[in-house]
Write a structure and sequence with these properties.
Largest sheet: none
Radius of gyration: 19 Å
Shape: flat
Number of helices: 8
Distance between the termini: 17 Å
Helix content: over 70%
């Protein structure tokens, strides 16, 4: 476990504690207190991102420590944007905030590194940020998809399905834009749009799973909701592989190895 005693670490742990407290407050129906704690956690998470950026001198999206830190801050504004969905799970968002910050707080080292030449591009921030927004939205979609496998009334399962679909529909354009920006960046940095790099291949596989999900919904509109939920879970599993295992495993070493 990689405990951190720096100012940055304290900001991360404060954000995690506030997100967790918000989740507990919601458990006891303290809705207003929960929302205030959730917002306070966002302030500390955003402070951690800003502190990291100032200390490194570049946008803090270089490696997995910074990526999970950024997603831990993104969860709050995305949760606000999704609050009016018919099956919104705000308490799940609070818990998701803790989960997203956990790798930054306890797994990955905070040691800053110089920005590699390949990342010194105007496409660096937009490429990574649109992907992170997609990942958070699709994680929320996967939570609602997974909830459909519990025994529930048909009307509740239908609300979960509609909300999971809406979140996936919001996340899919970001996922697509991230893929396109990555291809453009690859052309500028390495001379070609596509290099069959393991990270590129898994990103494409993820996009194809979600494309298949939307195609299935168009073709079989009355299909079983659990089939659609299974596709959303498969897509999120591919995201986890793309984001973590492909970066961490030596088996998948490639052009994106600097993301470790």
């Amino acid at each position: 476990m990689n405990l951190k005693t720096s100012v940055l670490g304290m900001l991360i742990y404060a954000a995690m504690l506030l997100y967790a407290a918000a989740f507990v407050a919601g458990k006891f129906s303290l809705r207003r207190a929960g929302r205030l704690l959730f917002a306070s956690g966002f302030v500390f998470a955003t402070g951690a991102v800003a502190w990291r950026g100032l200390s490194t001198g570049h946008i803090p999206l270089q490696n997995l420590f910074e990526v999970f830190l950024a997603m831990g801050a993104l969860i709050y504004p995305i949760a606000l944007a999704c609050r009016r969905l018919p099956a919104a799970r705000e308490r799940a968002d609070m818990l998701l905030g803790v989960i997203l910050l956990w790798p930054a707080g306890f797994v990955f080292p905070e040691t800053p590194r110089p920005l590699p030449p390949a990342l010194q591009s105007f496409l660096f921030a937009p490429h990574v940020l649109v992907y992170l927004a997609a990942y958070v939205l699709l994680a929320k979609s996967a939570i609602l998809a997974g909830a459909q496998f519990r025994r529930r009334p048909d009307d509740e399962r239908e609300r979960l399905d509609r909300s999971a679909h809406a979140l996936a529909a919001w996340g899919y354009p970001f996922l697509t834009l991230g893929l396109l920006l990555g291809a453009w960046w690859g052309k500028l940095a390495w001379g070609d749009y596509w290099h069959w790099d393991p990270k590129e291949m898994w990103a494409l596989a993820t996009w194809l799973i979600y494309t298949g999900y939307f195609h299935a919904r168009v073709q079989f509109a009355r299909g079983p909701s659990r089939l659609y939920a299974g596709l959303l879970l498969a897509g999120f599993f591919a995201i986890v592989l793309t984001l973590s295992w492909v970066n961490l495993s030596r088996l998948f070493a490639g052009l994106h190895s600097y993301a470790m």
